[in-house]
Amino acid sequence: MKNERSIMKIVVIGGSGLIGSKLITKLGEQGRQAVAASPNTGVNSVTGEGLAEVLEGASVVVDVSNAPSWEDAAVMKFFETSTRNLLAYEAAAGVGHHVALSVVGTERLLESGYFRAKLAQENLIKASSIPYSIIRATQFFEFVKGIADFSTDGNRVLLSPALIQPIAADDVASAVGQVAVGSPVNGVVEVGGPEQFRLYELVQRYLAARKDPREVVADPHARYYGVELSERTLVPGDDAQLGETRFADWLSRSASQI
Ligand SMILES: NC(=O)c1ccc[n+]([C@@H]2O[C@H](COP(=O)([O-])OP(=O)(O)OC[C@H]3O[C@@H](n4cnc5c(N)ncnc54)[C@H](OP(=O)(O)O)[C@@H]3O)[C@@H](O)[C@H]2O)c1
User: Is the CB of 46 within 6 Å of ligand 1?
Assistant: First the structure.
């Protein structure tokens, strides 16, 4: 068993990022051979630099990269080019499992260029010959500050009262790790947090805990990255796997780090 584990090479594209670095640590703790690959380590999935070398002998590729720019054309170019390159180099290297992290509700968020790009990424993976698993996660707790900042106008934060079921990045990394060492599902697995909130209420809690004076205003027409949300746009289905970490516990634990 130990031997089987150590010979399965797992390459993590975006291995220096929020999810990627946690995933590398978790796989390492399990005695797996996990290699972080990103521009920082000389591997660029957009230009192809370093891909052939890092994929040599790899069984699994996990793509947890993210685009540096979320501008409509730039983000589409990033996910399309990067995914096409990864799948082509994986086919040449004989990789048997492509794992990618996407977002719950992607097909309901297509007014946003970012989500059009994530859907394009998913569709390229589904159309390729490489066995795959797509994990769709809900918004990370770590992303709540970004939502607040993006929705701020002066001292006010305008947010929808739609439901959201956020998850700790640590729980996402655990779920991705489990899928990566299992058999390809050739489909989509959803992961979410253990609790639902109203979006405006979630941000209110975050700002209050950080003693941030901005005022949160609930507005059903407030857009989320350009999208008007319905009640359940961001919520996963009933079969979603749930993370353990509660938002309040994460807030108090992460208080000293943010
Ligand atoms: N934020 C959320 O709430 C949320 C929810 C569900 C799903 N997701 C998905 O989760 C994924 C990971 O997000 P994250 O927040 O962990 O990302 P992140 O912290 O922003 O990290 C992005 C990673 O991508 C790498 N990267 C950038 N350009 C690259 C390139 N050309 N070639 C190879 N690697 C490249 C970066 O490498 P360097 O450090 O070397 O630049 C970094 O390791 C994304 O695909 C996102 O769609 C996010």
Answer: yes
